Amino acid sequence: MTHPLSGVRILELGQIIAGTYGSQVLTDLGAEVIKIETPEGDLGRIPSVAPYRGVSALFLTFNRNKKSVVINLKSEAGRELFYGLVKQSDVVIDNFRAGVLERLKVDYPTLSAINPRIIQCSVTGFGGDGAYKDFPALDLVIQAIGGYLSITGEPGRPPARVGIPLADLSGGIFSCEAVLAALYQRERTGKGSRVETSMFDGMLNLLSYMATHYLTAGDVPTPQGTAHEFTVPWQAFAAKDGYLVIATRQENFWKKLCVVLEHPELADDPRFATNPKRLEHREAIVPLLENILRQRTVKAWLDKLYAAEVPAAPVNDLAGAFNEPPVGEREMIVEYEHPQVGRVRLPGNPIKFEGMGKTISNPAPLLGQHTDSVLQDLLSLPAARIAQLRADGVVK
Prior knowledge:
By secondary structure, this protein is α/β, with parallel strands linked by helices. The chain folds into 2 domains: about 10-205 and about 325-390, Crotonobetainyl-coa:carnitine coa-transferase, domain 1 (Rossmann fold, 3-Layer(aba) Sandwich), CATH 3.40.50.10540; about 235-315, formyl-coa transferase, domain 3 (2-Layer Sandwich). About 40% of the residues lie in helices and about 15% in strands. The chain contains 18 helices and 13 strands. It has helices at about 20-30, 55-60, 75-85, 100-105, 110-115, 140-145, 165-190, 200-205, 210-215, 250-260, 265-270, 275-280, 280-295, 300-305, 320, 325-330, 370-380, 385-390; strands at about 10, 30-35, 50, 55, 65-70, 90-95, 120-125, 195-200, 235-240, 245, 310-315, 335-340, 340-345. The strands form 4 sheets. A 6-stranded parallel β-sheet has the order 5-2-1-6-7-8, with helices on both faces. The chain has a 3-stranded antiparallel β-sheet with strand order 9-10-11, with helices on one face. Helix 1 (about 20-30) crosses helix 7 (about 165-190) and helix 7 crosses helix 8. The longest helix is centred in the middle third of the chain and has 24 residues, at about 165-190. The two termini are about 35 Å apart. The mean pLDDT is about 95.
């Protein structure tokens, strides 16, 4: 089986994470992604961002498998080159601020006139129009205004952000979905389309059942730490040498847990017999469990919990997480050799097509690494013409 998106060509005008993650996922499925960069390059290249041997680890992560072509879209000659690539491509992805597409003359009406089958996907902060269209859409800003800082962290402590740039990543996740849906629609209609997703919209959507509960019942959630608003016990507990989590969603798990803890009487205590009762008496049951669990090591408890089929896990750091058996079983570490920093190891593709084979893993490109080859192969430009464009500052 070939990769399912083999033959799909994407022009990426995206930067940093929100405009790059979605197309990186698509390269894992076989899409060719040509990254159109300014002469200064993607802001994600700034080496102070997750620095590693003078290079940004952020860029190394989100630009695997891509080609880099430097074109100055502010010049008329540069736009003509870009238009030529649009004629031979399927998708254009960007995460520009409102109005930039129009100023650069790469908006959808312009591109669809050149190629009626082109799909343009824009990742915005708060939408392309409206009251917040010009707001800076940094991950922390979106997490804050989207309500995440109000529900993350420990009760009574200062606000805490989600430990990964979830708002930025949401832009990539939903743009990837949008592109796949648009490609499928084009198969039925023969026409391209304009599609937009915003990071703020994505984060509101990911609030999922918590948002439904608030919008329907009016209850405003508060930080719970690792605990659960509606289930007890469901949280991290300290053992003798570390932490583990226990999650007893069903009553049968609670009863099994009491046996594992060698305190079966807790299951029969009227205060703790059902989850609603345990919620009511959370302040009584949690300290009891904490005292019991501190008596043994994490491994000792997990051996007993796993044997009893009680949902539980160690609280891993990344070293622990990437040493779990599914990582190797499911090829969730890929690597490539980068010409500046050497071997780079990074997370693999979570989407597994039967028969697709190993994840494609080519190095994140150097700035402008593929300018000449792409212009020669796709636009049939002779070397002399490319040299003149370079001398004129149109390409790099």
